[in-house]
Amino acid sequence: MTKSVKQYSDLVIIGNGVAGNNASLVARSRNQDMKITIISREPHNEYAPGALPEYLSGALSREDMFIKSTSDYEINNIDKLFGVAVDAIDYKKKVVKLSEGNITYDKLIIATGSTPIVPPVKGHDLPGNFVFKTLDDTDAMIEYPGKNAVVVGSGAIGLEAALALKSRGYENVTLIELKDWIVPNSFDEKPARMMEKELKDFGVNVLTGEKVTAVQGKKHVTGVSTDKNEISCDVVVWAVGVKPNVNLAQTAGVKLGTTGGIAVNEYMQTNLSDIYACGDCVESTDIFSGQKVLNLLWDAACKQGRVAGSSCTGGNVTYPGSYAVLLSHIGEVPVLSFGLNASHLKNQEYQTLEKVIDNKYQRLIMKEDELVGVQMVGTLEGSGPVLFHLKKGAKRADLREVYANPSLAKMDPRSVMLNSFIDKFTVGK
User: Fold this and answer.
1) Once rounded to an integer, what is the mean pLDDT over residues 167-189?
2) Exposure check for the chain: N or C terminus, fewer CB within 10 A?
3) What is the pTM of this model?
4) φ, ψ for residue 424 (rounded to 5)?
């Protein structure tokens, strides 16, 4: 919609991602009469960002990316202002100022998401540099005539981008990680080294402990320089991290947390009355560590959106906190990380239990007799009951004692499911 806007809406939602859309649907289910408007800078109906790697690889068509059609918004009586920029929020007047007009509100939900970080190294703005966050980003990569790529950063986004580009038919794909091993925020070194081998077998070159210092080229990308290498390429994908989009909120007077995300309570309320926030732009509490974190994941955004939609219509559902999870495949090899890893627990006492059978690796992270993290490479066996066990109950069973004395499992139904799973686990490193 591009025409000038001057109207009122009972509920205005800024952001058309999973958080904003879940908020709108819950709000509509609780109140059939309220006027709901979603505003988005992107011109598209809701799509599945988690499927962008499949679209980039060629496994999915562009049409397959979309979760909603225009009629889906109409059926739920939700107005949309797409391709429209929000310039400011006037909290005192309850006005959202748009690039083309204003819209007043009774309740406001901020679901502005996050933005990829691109380090300001020489050449970072040459044609051939990309980020991998939105449908438009992916369209741009697909349209660009590249055949050799460097992916900078090996978190979930970098890992998926490298695999997708190789599957797409790129001749050379190099994944560069600044730290000593790949996906360091999700995996400890031992499983990460196993993943590195799988990546190399898939055809992705992996460089760890290297820093990109410049992008080479005059009119377009021709390579990258690191502190150790010169690598020829015509495409660079930046996947070094994202930051929450909080400028609108902060300028309006919304308080930020210690992580830089919007501070909210368990009802997703901000410090300003009638303003809520959810999704990548907010900070949450990690369930296992108790620390404030930026958990920029689909599952967290989905649940936060539902809580925000409930709260702004008088509901009392609460958000209990978030947890880190990475589930992917390197070719046919599944990899899973859930909860905390050793890097989260430095300077704290913890123990690892591990099991290796036929190149299938499983690792449990224990802290104070509680299971706080799981890592798997090559298998997802037992992941259902162990994740159930992780997420349920304030005090989790001591798996080491259960292993030593299986009869203890009978005292806790949750442990019964784990009894066969923990067989053959030994103390790891």
Assistant:
1) 97
2) C
3) 0.90
4) 80, 5
